[in-house]
Amino acid sequence: MVRLFDTIEESNMAWIIAADRALRGAFDKTLIDLVPSYTTLMVHYDCRLLSHGEAHGRIREALEYLQPADTQAGQRHEIPVWYHESVGPELQRVADRAGISIDALVQRHCDRDYCVFALGFAPGYGFMGLVEEALATPRLETPRRKVAAGSVGIAGRQTAIYPLPSPGGWNILGRTAVPLFEHARRGDPLLKPGDRVRFQAVSRDEFEAQGGDTTPLEERP
């Protein structure tokens, strides 16, 4: 595990992306997998081809003259979301914590680009941030047994989209029809670390026309 930072900041990604590229080049055919995250990179290499000491040497050499990458090189995705209490039961909870209306919450959630920091939890699940401080909301005390695919939620200052039905404790604000799991299953996740996401509010009719499922989500776990 290669740790570059101790705190989560959007500015980290320029260095994480640069380190990802440098380490891939340094390990070349000995690399099995490399997983970038908020502050770290996990280097999974073939220890039959490389000793522990040699791996450390390659890491030190790769990072010695590291320069930040261009964070605008990643893709920018516009994700349409139907924000409604039937599919976003925590809309009122998050709005109340911030002292604003639901309409204002939706506007502010859609008002910025979110950096994709890491993929995990489920295939295609991108951890994104940072949500503005005023909208930050703790996870639910008791997770739901089932969150619908496409659900868009907030936890702390992170936001994310559930790519398939699964348990989860995030505050759900709405739902998208974008098929994240289908992309991941084909081996090419739609969201990748370093990409940016902008949410776009759409009506129920638009959501249904895009193939969205309007089945209500349970209000509480």
UniProtKB/TrEMBL annotation:
Keywords tagged on the record: ATP-binding, Hydrolase, Kinase, Nucleotide-binding, Transferase
Pfam families registered for this protein in UniProt: CT_C_D
Matches recorded under SUPFAM superfamilies: Cyclophilin-like, PH0987 N-terminal domain-like
Region feature Disordered, mapped onto this chain: 202-221
Segments forming domain Carboxyltransferase: 1-192
Any GO MF annotation of the entry: ATP binding
Keyword Transferase part of the UniProt annotation: yes
NCBIfam families: 5-oxoprolinase subunit PxpB
Protein name listed in UniProt: Kinase A inhibitor
Source organism of the structure: Halomonas chromatireducens
Taxonomic classification: Bacteria, Pseudomonadati, Pseudomonadota, Gammaproteobacteria, Oceanospirillales
